[in-house]
Amino acid sequence: MNYTTWWFEVTDEDSDLCGEQFFVEVGPSEHPLSKAWEIAVENFGDIEMKCVRRVSAFEAEMMGLDTY
User: Fold this and answer.
1) Which of 60, 59, 58 is nearest to 24 (CA)?
2) Cα 25–17–42 angle (5° rounding)?
3) Are 18 and 54 in contact (CB under 8 A)?
4) 47 CB contacts (<8 Å, ≥6 apart)?
5) DSSP-based three-state secondary structure for 30
6) Cα 12 to Cα 8, 45, 52, 53, 59, distances in angstroms
7) 16, 21, 55, 62: which is deepest, by most CB within 10 A?
8) Which residues of the chain are modeled with pLDDT < 70?
9) In contact, 68 and 17? CB cutoff 8 Å
10) Contacts of 30 (CB under 8 A, 6+ apart)
11) Which residues on adjacent β-strands are paired with residue 51?
């Protein structure tokens, strides 16, 4: 199965999580970035965050951030 990994960062300055970075990994989908956003919101709620970019499995492993 082919997964896509997206790198996110919490940007909400009013949140204790500001600066928190994490990955969201999604399986095959017509809209993988939309699905990644859904997963990010499920895990972090309604706070400001941004998707930094798509990363390879190798990059994600080397960076060692939490993956959802």
Assistant:
1) 60
2) 40
3) no
4) 10, 12, 15, 17
5) coil
6) 12, 11, 14, 18, 25
7) 55
8) none
9) no
10) none
11) 8
What does the pLDDT look like over 46-55, one tens digit per residue?
899 999 999 9
Residues for the chain: how many in total? 68
What the block records as the tokens of 22 is: 């994490």
46 Cβ neighbours under 8 A, 6+ residues apart:
none
CA 29 to chain centre: 16
Residue 55 has which token pair? 């990363």
φ/ψ of residue 7, rounded to 5:
-100, 125
Tokens standing for 41? 């919101």
